Please model this.
Amino acid sequence: MVVAIDGSPGAQRALDEAVQLAKVFSAALTVLAVVPAHTVYSVQRRAEVVEPREEDLRLFEELLSRALEAARRAGLSTVTKELMQGEPVEEILTYLDDRRPDLLVMGARGLSRARRLLLGSVSDGVIHHAKCSVLVVRPGSA
Model:
């Protein structure tokens, strides 16, 4: 089982739900975080992907460490972490294709309909292309 986190309240609810499911089913849990790469646009050049800043990497590494500690305190013994860099939907889908877990748990951001149409969301992108089951934890449901 995999849970994707990003430091948001929805991701925290997803982590809580994933820990409970892993306990009930005696499953191993991997906590996955993707440090987003940023695209920079300029008049002189095409769009250029810029590697994440060092402080972003440290922040996501700390998020993973805290998530692992919380899962272990909750009684899980088999918990691992995975830190990736890039576009979150693409990286999560690549991880799922490579590792083939039974389930991905992730939070929903609750974006407005207008923002979702313009920006999309990570959970929407993953749901539509994942080859495994995806549990999206809605606000207030965990």
In short: Residues 2-137 form a domain with the Rossmann fold fold (CATH 3.40.50.620). The two ends are 17 Å apart (CA to CA).
